[in-house]
Design goal:
Elements: E1 2-5, H1 6-34, H2 43-67, E2 69-72, E3 84-90, E4 95-100, E5 111-113, H3 118-123, E6 131-133, E7 139-147
Length: 148
């Protein structure tokens, strides 16, 4: 099961459509390369097959993610939840800013902090000003939460 924002779900759905179109092109390239003579002596066949395998693997991953997705209505900004951007101070060090969500739902310009990670488990549901004990000798302060 993957927790995704609506925007993340839509991005993955669009990627799946693009992958399916690229797969058709890759199949045609394989057929073309195979028709160009001795397959054993044609490196284009191997290249085309490798590209097709890469596309197929990503299609399976995206399909599996979309099938098992729980789509959230987005972060409201009051607590750390899927789809928010959270600013943390870890053990009093400089602030670090993260997108809180699935790796498949990541946002450009932010490191992604997943809810299943050790740190994600600690801060999920916490509010601005909360100071959490890591259980490993350091603290995490929630400095700011914003909707994506």
């Amino acid at each position: 099961m993957s927790n995704l924002t609506q925007a993340g779900y839509e991005r993955l759905s669009a990627e799946l459509g693009e992958l399916e179109a690229r797969r058709i092109q890759a199949v045609m390239l394989v057929e073309e390369a195979q028709g160009a003579g001795d397959v054993a002596e044609n490196p284009d066949v191997g290249i085309a097959l490798a590209e097709l395998a890469r596309i197929d693997a990503r299609v399976k991953t995206v399909q599996r993610t979309l099938r098992g997705a729980v789509v959230s209505d987005g972060a409201g900004g009051d607590v750390v939840e899927i789809g928010c951007v959270v600013t943390l101070s870890i053990d009093g060090d400089d602030d670090e800013i993260f997108f809180f969500g699935s790796l498949e739902d990541r946002r450009e310009g932010f490191d992604t902090l997943t809810e299943g990670s050790d740190l994600g488990k600690i801060i999920k549901g916490k509010a601005v000003g909360d100071v959490c004990d890591s259980g490993r000798g350091y603290t995490i302060e929630i400095k700011e939460i914003s909707a994506d």
